[in-house]
Amino acid sequence: MRVVVVGAGFAGLRAALVLADAGVDVTVVEAGQRVGGRVRTVRAPFEADQYAETGAEWIDTHHLRLGELLDRYGIGRLGAGEQWTSIRRWVAVGGRVLGPDDVRREDPEAFRQLEAFDDALEAAGNGIADPANPTAHPDAAALDTRSLADLAAELELGRIASLVKRRDAQGEFAAEPSEVSLLFVAQQRAYQRLAAGDHEVRAHRVDGGFSTVAHRMAGELGDRVVLGEAVTRLDVDADVVRVATSRGEYSADHVVVACSLPALRAVDIVPEPPAALHAAILGLGYGTITKTAVQWPVRTWRDGYLTTDGRTQRVYEPTVDQSGDAGILMSYCGGVGGHDWAALTHDERAHVAATEMRLLHGMASEPIVSVSRAWSTEARFGGSYAVYRPGEVTAYWDVLRTPWGRLHLAGEHVATCTGYMEGALESGDTVARRILDSR
Q: Do 129 and 188 have their domain in common?
């Protein structure tokens, strides 16, 4: 058996490893000059051996595949871990930085409203018995027509609760609340409930950065990974798949397309896929995240996450578990903000981020250096990660996860754990096992 994998992100590398371990002749074709996809740890030009994740950043305690991979490579988790609560410590409104007690004094209803919002999402998630099959929810069609914005309007969230929930949507789903299907959120909540059980969920960064994991996977595959070779055409028939690239052509029994769907939209597929699959490939939503990391000579900021009504959206320290006097603050912007930041030059983003960080934390020092990445402007990705918008779960969920002959889609967008590195690994496992079972 011969298989070509398109894309050397976590999904493609995982699928290739499972197939290679089973004796399959596999080649991974990657258009870029590096492995890892939307996992991208940046060290230069930061000083003092510090680094930041300009792509995926966290492993949650219930991300078992990713945890096993870290253990396999002897890569440690950092710190005590972050708990994802609605108000992670600080909220900046109108130039004032408020802690939880300040929020209660400012708006006594805010926490009750946030709890009611979360309770409504949990209730919707309780209707999903199998997170891999959200369309089986008894109210699937109705939930899929509604958005997080609809729920916020129904609950009449106040100023602070509205800000927090908008930033939650922009952060977790990289989209505006109006762009996120309630059925999709219910599916994500059901997945976490099943995967985490009664265990407390904490999120960790990893020692040395997540790009190390991608390099280790690619190292196991050796020369099976080919860089700098872009796929231009896929000819799929009943007996063989022909994969045309910028350098030549491969023939294979199966092709695993493990790139993002915006990248796949630029590939000529012959014959054209069935109408439902074609519509899903062209239509699925992708979030827009722009991350801007600013290194400062001394850490004179408040501990913990800061949710702000300013342009920086969310500000936090990715170097909290790294040594040295210097430190990095990250601005994490999604949705409309992600788009707006993407339209700026790198220097403009750095200036806006540093200026707002200094005001929020009352810092007097000047930044050392900055790094910013807007995933929506990167041609090979076209966005940060998938977001199922209203109507898209019922329309696209099942069809994207069903192989079309010898063509199989992989990536976080077709995983149960959508939007995470864990989901990328899950999808690689799923596709590889399916191909092996077909022998």
A: yes
Is the domain of 251 the same as that of 187?
A: no
- The structure tokens listed for 39 are 């996992």
Residue bearing tokens 């505006």: 176
- Residue with structure tokens 């990250």? 330
Q: Starting at the earlier edge strand, list the strands of the sheet with 241-245.
A: 249-252, 241-245, 231-236, 268-270
Q: What is the pLDDT of residue 198?
A: 82
Domain count, the chain: 2
Chain centroid offset of residue 273 CA? 26
239, with CB counted inside 10 A (0-12, 13-18, 19+), is: exposed
48: three-class secondary structure by DSSP: coil
| 53 and 210 Cβ atoms separated by less than 8 Å | yes
Q: Decide: residue 119, CB within 10 A, 0-12 exposed, 13-18 middle, 19+ buried.
A: exposed
Same domain for 246 and 183: no
362 assigned to some structural domain: no
pLDDT less than 70: residues of the chain: 86-88
Domain edge (last residue) among 165, 196, 227: 196
| Stated pTM of the model | 0.97
Residues 168 and 233 in one domain: no
CB 397 within 8 A of CB 135: yes
Residue 101 lies in a domain: no
Question: Would you list the DSSP string of 240-304?
Answer: -EEEEESS-EEEESEEEE-S-HHHHTTSEEESPPPHHHHHHHHH-EE--EEEEEEEESS--S-SS
3-state secondary structure of 131: coil
Tokens matching residue 231: 């796929």
Q: Please report which residue ranges of 22-85 form alpha helices under DSSP H.
A: 64-73
User: What is the model's pLDDT at position 275?
Assistant: 98
245: containing domain: 2-37+210-285+385-437
Q: Tell me if residue 10 falls in helix, strand or coil.
A: helix
Q: Are residues 249 and 391 in the same domain?
A: yes
CATH number at residue 392: 3.50.50.60
